[in-house]
Amino acid sequence: MLKQGLQQKLLQKLSPLQIQTIKLLELPTLELEQRIKKELEENPVLDEATEKEDPDEGTGGNISLSEYNSEDQIPSYKLYSNNQGKDLKPEYNTFSVRESFHQSLISQLGYSSLDSRAKTIAAFIIGSLDDDGYLRRDLDSLADDVAFRQGIETNEEELERILLKIQEFEPVGIGARTLQECLLLQIRAAEPSPEQKIAEKILSDYFSEFTKKHYPRIMSKLSITEDQLRDAIDEIVRLNPRPGGQIDDSYTDQAQQVIPDFLLEFKDGDLYMTMPRFSVPELKVNKRYADLLMSSAKTSNRAGKEAATFVKQKLDSAKWFIEAIKQRQNTLQNTMNAIIDFQREYFIEGDETKLRPMVLKNIAEKTGLDISTISRVVNCKYIQTHFGIYPLKYFFSEGLMTDNGEEVSTREIKNILAASIDVEDKQHPLTDEELVAVLTEKGYRVARRTVAKYREQLNIPIARLRKEL
């Protein structure tokens, strides 16, 4: 049986300007620079303004288009985006990235004695290593991939021989398939010593007991003393479980910069926030194309009208882009001012205990913006303070109540939790239940499952795995 009814839906359609603004909001400074350069290349109507040009005058090769005769006349201030800040050449923190470990291994492969067929297979294996330097795939499926992608028929035995050759490359431990194999490769390459021999025996025969810290069982099996075990463990903990991380590949193959979007200074007992100038050009609309639009609009032929339509579209796009850049700057500034106001005591002293519980909703209410907008602003943005450079996400945390009714941030509780674990007796580490008791004594009422969650977020293992000899 068919039913007919009337349903009313409320749909909100975003304007091109709103869409453009949303996209630009979440971009960090470096990506914004690239985005503007791309827009300049693709839109001939957009142009770079020189420092001598007045944004409200149509002099030189640029125009404000206030004279542009259109049904939706554009105010001149909307056709200029000023990205200038007070600091013309601020000092930015730059993190340069060295050669990736994949590139390093390929370079070493070039000096190996393998023939051309084996080198092709070895290069494929190297390309299959993850960022930690491990081969996480089984050799059988790897053989299928080599056949399919390289057109080379191979088998597990040949792949094993080539992999063993790769495992001779630097850094030691590269090409391992498991953590156990990775550590064994490194301990076998170490200087021979009594400790090294015991460490190798532990890793090869008693790895499971070692990871579970069943030390009495290991001492019994190997007939060694506690001091001998301790010396062997010292050898093991010096090994690198992530050999691929020795050569920093965290930013792919190019140098990256962390450029602060905000500068905060503390002068004469007050806080001053600025948005530094970055290498984004000031934008204006090109006069030549504006003239083309106005002259073409007067012609009646088809080509002229098509040209006018094209330029009109580009002008609209330029208008939206320039306005979106302005709105981005204003939104970032308002949001950062609200965060500083909310966390004023913290920003004055840099004392983490002064960091108030703060969630996106708090800043959304102070600015009148949507939570989603605040989330985009906070994403990948940094502020430079007198006590360091921090991502904006750092200042957000939930809160809990103490015994005396005072609200504290979860970060403060995590710091106390980590500090308590740092000073614990490592031969008898604190269980989660005991950590609850420690926090309770300090006035923080936290459930055991909450302690466990915070401990995991801090990457701190359970008590049994923190035990030391």
The total domain count is: 3
Are there runs of 5+ residues with pLDDT below 50, and where?
A: 55-99, 247-256
**Which structural class best describes the helix and strand composition?**
alpha+beta
Average pLDDT for all residues: 79
Strand order of the largest sheet: 6-5-8-9
> In DSSP terms, counting alpha (H) and pi (I) runs of 4 or more, how many helices?
19
Please tally the β strands and state the result: 11
**Residue share in helices?**
40-55%
Question: How far apart lie the N and C ends?
Answer: 77 Å
Q: What is the chain-wise order of helices and strands?
A: HHEEEHHHHHHHHHEEEEHHHHHEEEEHHH
How many whole angstroms does the radius of gyration measure?
31 Å
Biggest sheet statistics? 4 strands, mixed
Shape: flat
Quaternary state reads: single chain
Strand content: 5-15%
What does this structure look like?
The protein is an alpha+beta fold and 469 residues long. The chain contains 19 helices and 11 strands. The protein has a 4-stranded mixed sheet. A 3-stranded antiparallel sheet has the order 1-7-2. It has a two-stranded antiparallel sheet with strand order 3-4. Helix 4 (116-127) crosses helix 6 (156-166). It is flat, with a radius of gyration of 31 Å.
Short description:
The protein has 469 residues and is of the alpha+beta class. The chain has helices at residues 16-25, 29-42, 101-110, 116-127, 139-150, 156-166, 179-188, 194-205, 207-211, 215-222, 226-237, 287-297, 302-342, 344-349, 360-367, 371-378, 410-422, 432-441, 448-457, and strands spanning 46-48, 62-63, 93-95, 256-258, 262-267, 270-274, 283-286, 382-385, 388-391, 399-401, 407-409. A hairpin with a 2-residue loop joins strand 8 (382-385) and strand 9.
